[in-house]
Amino acid sequence: MSDEIERLEIVRRVFSTSPAEGISFDLPGVSLIADASSADDAAVYRIEGIGDLVATSDYVRGPKFALFERGYLTLHDLGYYLAVANLSDVAAMGAAPLGLLTVIRYPEEMNDHGFEEVLQGIADACRKHGTVCVGGDIGGAERLILSGTALGIAPLGRAILRSSGQPDDLLCVTGPVGTAGAAVIYFTRVKADGQRLADQDEKTLLDAWRRPRARFDVTRTLAHLGLATACQDISDGLRATVEQLSTASNCGAEVTLEKVPIDPVIAKVALAVGVDPYALAVSASVDFELLLAVAPTNWTEAVAAAAMAGFRLHVIGRLRKESGVVAIIDGAPQPMPGVRWRHQPGDVASTVVEGLKSSLRGDA
Amino acid sequence: MSDEIERLEIVRRVFSTSPAEGISFDLPGVSLIADASSADDAAVYRIEGIGDLVATSDYVRGPKFALFERGYLTLHDLGYYLAVANLSDVAAMGAAPLGLLTVIRYPEEMNDHGFEEVLQGIADACRKHGTVCVGGDIGGAERLILSGTALGIAPLGRAILRSSGQPDDLLCVTGPVGTAGAAVIYFTRVKADGQRLADQDEKTLLDAWRRPRARFDVTRTLAHLGLATACQDISDGLRATVEQLSTASNCGAEVTLEKVPIDPVIAKVALAVGVDPYALAVSASVDFELLLAVAPTNWTEAVAAAAMAGFRLHVIGRLRKESGVVAIIDGAPQPMPGVRWRHQPGDVASTVVEGLKSSLRGDA
Questions:
Q1: pLDDT-based confidence at residue B359 (cuts at 50, 70, 90)
Q2: Which residues are CB-contacts of A159 (< 8 A; sequence separation ≥ 6)?
């Protein structure tokens, strides 16, 4: 799910369901563990004897498809992306996917072939992640509108919330961050201005949008073993994600910036626009890697389980009692760099690049 | 869920999940009973020992909000409507509501007060229907976009599909149809042209949009007792709904037109635009009453259960072996009148009124 910070307070107030009491729904054995007021990646219903049912909705067709409008992404890619953006929120709760619902509204000028391309992208992404699209809504609209809902099930009591992190938990990420954000900057600014990276670099950047993956491999492993205390996908960029997870857990965090895994292509894009690569990597970027909090006592077991399942956990810092997020740079605490994602009209690439440059100049 | 007929074939083909085999999801005890290819009101998962989980998505902000653009509906009304449109599809499956997810994307010019009005409408509708909004997605967009997903649970094995109707089942509706469609025609054509109905009539018309209700009272009663063989909400208008349910059930249908319950205000609107009131009532209209098929052997028990629960079943016809839908008018079979809802850009009121007039003239 994605949110705009200021208005989340309104959502919390209006949709609050008195979590102290829980909701019984007149359905014995069903209780609501995470609702709209918890602002997690997904809502969670605990169903006794069965598991934790998670449900999440994401609208994806916004200003961020700058790369589609410039011809770098196809309609198939948009369908694929729609599915993964929704499935990723299920993965972030430690759940396996049950299925996807999609809303596809198209303008008059989209022909049957274009419509089917979107559907094929959705179907291919579902297949790749071991699930299916089970329904939704189609019909006309003034322009293309894509939205989805993903359902999943975690083992009973094992859904991983954002809010259960503890001070001293290790913070780790499951792969390189910032690539999707760098892609937008590269294709809309650098390449548009006549500079070019190698084909392989361009492919790396584009694949962050064309073939994202929801990390069910990670959450299946760690949720089944109960080895993560908190989890969130990094679809708002790493800085915002660390802030959200630590705040939800009533903690602060420190992040050792040089430990954040980034793809070498980030450095090339950062150089081209004259900003710091790590500051760029933690800025607004729709990454579908996960940020996890792992208790120090579980660390060895978590690393072993990850190795068995074929992935790596990159430690980037830890949660701490003191509120606020600090970066450790050259061994010293500093304000966390990076520019957060905002749902604002206009040009995300410019917001990030100008934001990073003005903080270099000390305008902020 | 709502659909455009031609493109449903593409949806069926691309999203087909081999219903013969079912889907196991590697989750013991979970099977998929209705998927995207069944084009039902909702997808259905059968969860052994628990119940039938239903999930449905509906986008509601399209050209049909002519009444909002003309100032007859508030933002609160739109939120209320969004919730009910989604909950109604859960009711149509014979399920009780588990919760709602909503996607609310707003343009820059919508202030916090307007945003909160939408949320309050959603929250009020949820409360009225005994459920809650558990999450979703908020953020900016170029214009207001409203979409939702509703979840529900029916007793195990008791979700009511569109496709299980049998020849000779009685077709019945749960209340007057056509009011929402007549409202659009009245406010955009009749009143706009200077003719006025009484305040009470205007209120009846507007309330179809302002305070619709999902008929959980009906489906709880009939689903729990297993008394309906097929069900669908009438949100595409009665003609289209009878066609869809009978086709899905591999049947045809006959509808005795004068038995269709309509509010007297429909006759006034029909008179003002010079069309037949019953033809208007069965045309495109977003009604949230239900169309049910009931086996003749269950009829007495169904009527008794309805009376106990405080609602009425209006018999309007029956399913039959022969394909196609016919109207019985003055005792004789006729082609079914009425103009179907289409997701097309432009003016629904004109489509319906001109369509009805041209069929009167014999143009069709």
A1: confident
A2: A33, A34, A44, A46, A52, A54, A93, A94, A95, A223
